[in-house]
């Protein structure tokens, strides 16, 4: 009996499969690999489904490849075996590697060749600048974009007698001291990710991380961050850690900064605006919180923060029909409706002016579940991007970030002074840059 | 052996044909990748395959001149030795218990074999919880005195944690071999020494352990090479090489430089060095340690 049922079920499945295949034959398919997991992976899948349901000509098959680094590794392995996907999501810091590898079809060329009219000025300038050549031509499509913010526990602040979220680091330290005095064990959560506290910090303070316009000007750039406000900032962080104002919260220690903030343990945390939806979903009962701009030091003219996240690259070497389908996918993603959908199901920000306008018209930021998300747009659009705030066009950034984490750990564990750690980091960073330059000897950044 | 008992193939191609599948497998999965790695170690390979340039010994020079690399070698050796000593020591103790039919030994004889069947990432996840400074089993240390146990920031703690997890997995493997070894020690010898008045400890040190020497030697080699090459999954899951590179073992460094950092050539050079190191160590062990053992 059971056997018969199973047989029948198998038969139905097989027939259904054949039917789906028959339908698929009329559609031009292509593959899209991405580097998101968990809830964000489901969000990408629902975007893919929306695209497939929206028309009958094309179909996209979306596959999660693990985290960003894994997605890049797998794509490279696939590319070397000539099995690459048509479209791949690459994180911001992989941009320089992609540009030099020359394995992609530039966004403009792709859309023009498939007969799509695109208003390239529609893409928000600080976002476009990260993925564009030094002359401003966008090579990949920004997809999931974010920027760094500070998450602030309002209730913990009020309990310590602070009405307003701190806007400067001096105020952050003062607030943390008051909270500590009021019995809050963990005023500030910190991790060893360089993005918010180092890369974004440099951008909003308008100081260079590296020469040659943070690498946009050429492969011979050198790290020069070990001076001035950055040096002061990290020495301060270490002092505040010793004072008990900062606690280290990493995934290895069980709870990262965002999770500690959501649980109400730590009153201030730094991270991506994309974590807004995570905190909203996982916040402890009655947590009174808001994102605010990452603080600056007093006397600093704050400029715009930098975009983070990832962009979509089209890889060479696939049949022409797939590029037609991919171009349609990109056009679909850039519609204001798609942008609104994406921002609604995730914590990411819209990447086009039209998308942003639609969100504002529909009262997106006024909805209680999105409270505070406009802060990211304000931070990103605050000023015209400068050489210091448009992005980092540096090779081997993944390894640089790992070196950053290691040197910071050494400093916070007391094995080195902060000055020694920063000097060592700069030296290692420069070795990485020289190696990258040598690997791509004779090539030029576009 | 006398010559009369040796079987000979008449044809010359048949023996080759019989070993060919084996040779093919070894070639495809061992010699070919090794050859490729050797080539990459002397070139600078572009990750996306856009070409490479011959750089001679440069990759090795930069590997050997990096302080981080020597640190990695030192801690890899430390990890291998500590894990091996701990794993063999504990396994020997357990095997002696079982051999003496201590109460309850029947139960844990079975239980002690299981851990070897568990995949390293699973062990890593479980031990990450056990050693968690805030909510794990070890959290009581921090309750007794805050900051006493912190593998996320203290390198020695992180290394201790790795060694314990690594040894835990090897104990079961060693246990099987040592128990088999112990049970092949002639009863008559043990009983004779017992009648001469030797207690259990004396019998263990003067009789059983010396007779186990070949097994111990074999396990030492297997454990050492295993610690050098199979520690990857534990490091990846438990510490990612941190904090401050204190658990950046050679095999993990190869992975993170090569695959995360896309420095294929540097990673290739490192894996050649690791291969030579393991080969050299095994050679030394056979050359100098094995001589002192008496099999006959």
From TrEMBL, chain A:
Pfam families: SBP_bac_8
Record keywords, A-Z: Signal, Transport
Compartment(s) where it occurs, according to its Swiss-Prot or TrEMBL record: Periplasm
Record bears the keyword Signal: yes
GO CC annotations, alphabetized: periplasmic space
Gene3D superfamilies membership: Periplasmic binding protein-like II
Signal peptide: 1-20
Highest taxon in the source lineage: Bacteria
Family, per entry: Belongs to the bacterial solute-binding protein 1 family.
UniProt subunit comment: The complex is composed of two ATP-binding proteins (UgpC), two transmembrane proteins (UgpA and UgpE) and a solute-binding protein (UgpB).
Protein name: sn-glycerol-3-phosphate-binding periplasmic protein UgpB
Record organism: Teichococcus aestuarii
Automatic annotation (TrEMBL), chain B:
Main location: membrane
Segments passing through the bilayer: 12-32, 77-98, 110-131, 158-182, 203-222, 267-286
Superkingdom as given in the UniProt entry: Bacteria
One GO-annotated biological process of the protein: transmembrane transport
Keyword DNA-binding found: no
Keyword Cell inner membrane: yes
Subcellular location: Cell inner membrane; Cell membrane
Domain spans labelled ABC transmembrane type-1: 73-285
GO cellular component: plasma membrane
Family: Belongs to the binding-protein-dependent transport system permease family.
Quaternary data: The complex is composed of two ATP-binding proteins (UgpC), two transmembrane proteins (UgpA and UgpE) and a solute-binding protein (UgpB).
Role, per record: Part of the ABC transporter complex UgpBAEC involved in sn-glycerol-3-phosphate (G3P) import. Probably responsible for the translocation of the substrate across the membrane.
The protein's name in its UniProt record: sn-glycerol-3-phosphate transport system permease protein UgpA
């Amino acid at each position: 009996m059971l056997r018969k049922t199973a047989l029948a079920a198998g038969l139905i499945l097989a027939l259904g499969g054949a039917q789906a295949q028959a339908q698929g034959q009329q559609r031009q398919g292509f593959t899209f690999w991405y580097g998101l997991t968990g809830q964000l992976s489901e969000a990408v899948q629902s975007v893919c489904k929306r695209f497939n349901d929206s028309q009958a000509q094309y179909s996209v098959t979306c596959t999660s490849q693990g985290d960003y680094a894994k997605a890049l590794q797998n794509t490279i392995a696939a590319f070397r075996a000539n099995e690459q996907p048509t479209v791949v999501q690459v994180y911001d810091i992989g941009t320089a590697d992609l540009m030099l590898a020359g394995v992609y079809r530039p966004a403009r060329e792709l859309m023009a060749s498939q007969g799509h009219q695109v208003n390239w000025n529609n893409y928000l300038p600080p976002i476009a600048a990260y993925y564009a050549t030094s002359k401003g031509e966008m090579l990949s499509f920004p997809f999931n974009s974010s920027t760094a913010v500070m998450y602030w526990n309002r209730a913990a602040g009020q309990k310590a007698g602070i009405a307003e979220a701190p806007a400067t680091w001096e105020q952050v330290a003062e607030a943390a001291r008051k909270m500590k005095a009021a019995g809050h064990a963990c005023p500030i959560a910190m991790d060893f990710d360089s993005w918010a506290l180092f890369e974004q910090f440099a951008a909003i303070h308008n100081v260079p991380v590296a020469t040659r316009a943070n690498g946009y000007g050429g492969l011979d750039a050198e790290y020069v961050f070990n001076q001035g406000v950055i040096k002061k900032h990290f020495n301060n962080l270490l002092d505040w850690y010793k004072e008990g104002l900062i606690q280290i919260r990493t995934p290895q220690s069980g709870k990262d900064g965002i999770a500690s903030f959501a649980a109400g343990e730590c009153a201030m945390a730094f991270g991506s605006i994309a974590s807004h939806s995570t905190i909203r979903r996982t916040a402890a009962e009655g947590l009174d919180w808001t994102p605010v701009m990452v603080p600056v030091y007093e006397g600093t003219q704050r400029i715009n923060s930098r975009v983070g996240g990832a962009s979509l690259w089209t890889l060479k070497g696939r049949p022409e029909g797939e590029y037609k389908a991919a171009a349609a996918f990109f056009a679909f993603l850039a519609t204001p409706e798609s942008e609104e959908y994406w921002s609604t199901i995730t914590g990411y920000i819209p990447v086009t002016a039209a998308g942003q306008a639609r969100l504002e018209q529909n009262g997106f930021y006024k909805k209680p579940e999105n409270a505070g998300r406009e802060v990211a747009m304000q931070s990103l659009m605050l000023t015209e991007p400068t050489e210091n705030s448009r992005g980092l066009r540096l090779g081997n950034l993944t390894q640089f970030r790992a070196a950053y984490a290691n040197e910071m750990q050494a400093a916070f564990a007391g094995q080195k002074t902060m000055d020694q750690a920063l000097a060592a980091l700069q030296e290692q960073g420069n070795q990485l840059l020289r190696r990258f330059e040598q690997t791509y000897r004779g090539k030029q950044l576009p | 052996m006398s010559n009369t008992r040796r079987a000979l193939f008449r044809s010359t191609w048949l023996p080759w044909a019989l070993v060919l599948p084996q040779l093919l497998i070894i070639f495809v999965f061992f010699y070919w990748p090794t050859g490729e790695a050797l080539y990459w170690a002397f070139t600078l390979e572009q990750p996306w395959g856009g070409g490479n340039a011959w750089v001679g010994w440069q990759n090795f020079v930069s590997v050997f001149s990096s302080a981080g690399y020597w640190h990695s070698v030192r801690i890899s050796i430390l990890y291998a030795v500590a894990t091996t000593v701990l794993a063999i020591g504990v396994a020997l103790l357990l095997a002696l218990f079982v051999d003496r039919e201590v109460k309850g030994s029947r139960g844990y004889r079975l239980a002690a074999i299981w851990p070897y069947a568990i995949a390293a990432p699973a062990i890593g996840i479980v031990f990450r919880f056990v050693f968690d400074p805030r909510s794990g089993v070890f959290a009581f240390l921090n309750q007794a005195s805050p900051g006493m146990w912190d593998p996320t920031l203290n390198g020695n703690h992180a290394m201790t944690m790795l060694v314990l997890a690594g040894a835990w997995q090897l104990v079961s493997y060693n246990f099987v071999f040592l128990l088999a070894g112990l049970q092949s020690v002639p009863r008559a010898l043990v009983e004779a020494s017992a009648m001469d008045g030797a207690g259990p400890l004396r019998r263990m040190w003067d009789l059983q352990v010396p007779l186990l020497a070949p097994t111990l030697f074999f396990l030492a080699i297997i454990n050492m090479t295993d610690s050098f090459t199979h520690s990857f999954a534990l490091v990846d899951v438990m510490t990612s090489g941190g904090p401050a590179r204190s658990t950046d073992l050679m095999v993990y460094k190869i992975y993170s430089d090569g695959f995360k950092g896309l420095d294929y050539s540097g990673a290739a050079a490192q894996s050649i060095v690791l291969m030579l190191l393991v080969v050299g160590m095994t050679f030394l062990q056979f050359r100098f340690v094995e001589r002192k053992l008496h099999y006959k």
